[in-house]
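Input sequence (109 aa), recorded before submission:
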Amino acid sequence: MVEELERIYTVPLIGAYKTVRGKRTSRAVKILKSFLARHMKTQEERVKVSAEVNSFLWQRGMQRPPRRVKVKVKRDAKGEVSVSLVEEPKAEKPAEKPAEKPKQEEKKG
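Predicted structure, token format:
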């Protein structure tokens, strides 16, 4: 019996750039499913990609998919695998104050 499992993966999609420009994002989706099926020990047909992952892959169009994607993967007891994006907290940079220039005194002549 398959046990439940949850993991986070950074999936390299650089292989999609080895195909023709018009099919790169479609190839990236196939690479993603293949990678996750291999690492979660299931079949590609059982890997379900969420709508947000799909829109993330397609957001720059068909010709320029992202080079890598970080995903959270859950496998249930039946062997079904669901894929969602990892929600990382954005590191907020402290607002830097611009350096003040020393004031020059005006010469009275």
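Checked by second reader. Residues 96 and 102 are 18 Å apart (CA to CA).
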